Amino acid sequence: MAQKGLPIIISAPSGAGKTTLCQALKKRLPDLNFSVSHTTRPPRENEQDGVDYHFITKKKFMEMTDRDEFLEWAQIHGNYYGTARKNITDTLQKGKDLVLELDIQGVETLRNLKYRGVYIFILPPSMEELEKRLTGRGTESDNQIKQRLEAGKKEMAKSRLYDYAVTNTNVDESVGTMLAIIHAEKKRMSRYQPDCPEIRKIIESGTA
Amino acid sequence: MAQKGLPIIISAPSGAGKTTLCQALKKRLPDLNFSVSHTTRPPRENEQDGVDYHFITKKKFMEMTDRDEFLEWAQIHGNYYGTARKNITDTLQKGKDLVLELDIQGVETLRNLKYRGVYIFILPPSMEELEKRLTGRGTESDNQIKQRLEAGKKEMAKSRLYDYAVTNTNVDESVGTMLAIIHAEKKRMSRYQPDCPEIRKIIESGTA
Prior knowledge:
The structure is a homodimer.
Chain A: E1 7-11, H1 18-28, E2 33-34, E3 38-39, E4 54-55, H2 58-66, E5 70-76, E6 79-84, H3 85-93, E7 98-101, H4 104-112, E8 118-123, H5 127-137, H6 142-156, E9 164-167, H7 171-185, H8 197-205
Parallel strand pairs in A: 1-7, 1-8, 2-7, 3-4, 8-9
Antiparallel strand pairs in A: 3-6, 5-6
Helix pairs in contact in A: 1-7, 5-6
């Protein structure tokens, strides 16, 4: 029996570095799959349909929600975002690990569903540093930055939703931690599938 | 507030390679502490008092059990073995991680005490390989090997006592897994102590 893939849920306050870390993780683990969300927001420059998001119309999105095709979905700043159930299930059934980059609402939904996976929260080393990073992007107004910082605080207050905390001081170090978490989680006893049939039988017979 | 050290409980059926792996782990993590057990069995050649074991008399051992100085102790093959509470607590209080190499009885005792730590079980890749390794040692009779194999099966039937399963096919790979487990476990949200006071306050205020 093939081992099912591991769902790895990654979330972070805006500016903590989730996108950078996930890109670096992808480079280190080229076989790792990343879930591609559906969204009704228009593509930004450089964003590719089917790679960054599945860009769909609001009508199509609503049809998908009607058919219960999303594991989780939410409306954020007027746009809809959702994680389609099918792609995830297909990938995991093939025994492939899958990263789901979710916002706090998505994480809350999955936890309420008791969705099994590894929940990783990326945190900034300090609030000053978070503000510096948001300002450094140069894409948001002062007011938007203030809003993102407040939203970040609310997200961090829900840290206990997660299994692991990765303080992103340094990208290489943080990616090293994420690799260690994935490596370790795959060795959890609850996921242990011995190759040796005799050992498998012994363990399955166990009651401890 | 300094983070308390992590207790790492390592156990294995005889012949799975626990001693080799722990020695290799020590080399990779020179700052990692290893608990030194007390025993009433006489030292073997090359064994050093205070390094391999604290070699003590049966009288002394019994006095220590009377004073409840052991976290766990057991009689095995007519000799007594115990883990002194004090050394462990002192090391962990200093924020240092500590490896406890225990037999199955010790692990069962700690689990019954709901002792918090990371429980790692080292398994052989197959029963054939386990027998080969026990035979290869050249230190046990055929009958002793048979006994150890049977004991090993009983221990493996209690695999569910552990958090992690490390199949020891290759020493380097197994040590890599143990390093990843230790690295990851230190990033558990339940052990997260942010350096930034503001972030600490936000997280502590959280209810999620």
